Every structure is written in structure tokens, then in C-alpha cells.
Amino acid sequence: AINMHDGGPYNHSIGLCQVSYNTARLLGMAANAPCRKGTKSCLLLNPEVNIYYAAKYLSRQLHRYPYNISKSVSAYNAGSAILGNRKYITKVYTRWAKFKSEIKTQNTGD
What we know:
Blueprint: E1 2-3, E2 13-14, E3 19-20, H1 21-26, H2 47-64, H3 69-78, H4 86-108
Antiparallel strand pairs: 1-2, 2-3
Helix pairs in contact: 2-3, 3-4
């Protein structure tokens, strides 16, 4: 999936974790990996590559805002921690809690 309404005309959010091309480049993705409008060969469309750069970026935010998951999630979404994306943070926390609960249930056999 490519979000054409995020990041400007040449830096859309791409793939499963909605990572922008510029963010992936900042984190070390090769410059010759095309990710422009209409590009079907973008490396970020590969789920494994997308998750790799998403995890790397979230890790960077967790180091930037130590012990503050809310600010880290906010910064993942907006580039820096802001108050205006509380709705996004709440959605992430809700899904995270549901996922943890499902994993716990699977591991205990309940």
C-alpha cells in the first residue's frame, strides 16, 4: 500500500508499516531503490524490508525518547513527538494490547 497523502509529492508512506522512502534512506536503504509514484518495484513494498526499516526507525525513536513509549510512537508517526496525534497513539496502544493478549492466550493454551 502506498499512502499518497502522506509525506509530500515524492515521499509517500509505503508498505505494511507505512515507512517513507526518505526515512528508509536515512536508515541505510540503497539510493538506487526506486520508490516514486507508480513504481511497483519499490523495495519498501516487500513486507520483510518494510518491517525491517520500521523496526529500525522505531528503535531510533525509543532511544531518542528513553522510557517513553508514547513519545516514541508519536515520533514514529510524525517525525518527532507531538501532542496532536494522540488518536494515533491510542489506536497503536489498543492494537498492541490486543496482540499481546492474543499471544498470551496462544502461549497458555486458554
